[in-house]
């Protein structure tokens, strides 16, 4: 897919499992299990879906998925499955790239399933995966990751982003900003403070990578708000605002955690918002 100066590619980096009740909040299992299979531990399968944007002068990755180096406790809880064996380079080589050629990483936030791939464990320590890339993050998200509360402390693994600090690779942003003529960044505060969402657009296509605002297909519906969210009523406001924008401006919503669909096109009728079309992969749009 071509949007402005960018070739845009979907990268599914890995899969993992989370408790279905946590993913869908107050919605009863009798409703959410219709579209989301739960295993014997009540866990549903999630993808880690990133976008790769490739242009003449930039190679941009939006989010970096899980880290390969998991201890046995984490493996038992989350059951990770990786698409690559040793390095993300195994996926990037399909696009004539490697990790050293990534110029920018736009991190929506610093939860372990979004920034874990930014670090690689080598020779007994963690080092930056993308050694020459600027890593863009909201300053509020960074500050919160350093001092989270008891509710979300387990979502942050400092080893995955501390190497970027020591290597001076973070670029801090303060609210909504224009990355360039084809990429606009929004700052949201429902899921976590300072979560970024990216709109990639030109006159033909508008892709909205919302991160954990609409992580899965079921989360499209207003009551389906994750129990992980720090401010669920703020999430509700953000969902209404961005759905209105999406319907009015013909946006496609990228689902970063949905294993079976890459994206959805929303619509609205007299009953409220609905899914007009679901896309299995980016090439179907």
Strand and helix map with partners:
Elements: E1 2-3, E2 6-19, H1 20-24, H2 29-32, E3 43-54, E4 59-62, H3 72-78, E5 81-82, H4 89-92, E6 104-106, H5 112-115, E7 119-122, E8 125-128, E9 134-138, H6 139-146, H7 162-166, E10 170-173, E11 177-180, E12 183-188, E13 195-201, E14 206-209, H8 232-249, E15 252-254, E16 263-269, E17 272-279
Parallel strand pairs: 4-6, 6-9, 9-10, 14-15
Antiparallel strand pairs: 1-2, 2-3, 2-5, 3-4, 7-8, 11-12, 12-13, 13-14, 15-16, 16-17
Overview of this protein structure:
There is one protein chain. The chain has 285 residues and is an alpha+beta fold. The chain has one domain: 4-Layer Sandwich (Metallo-beta-lactamase, Chain A). It contains eight helices and 17 strands. Strands 1, 2, 3, 4, 5, 6, 9 and 10 form an eight-stranded mixed beta sheet that branches. The termini are close together.
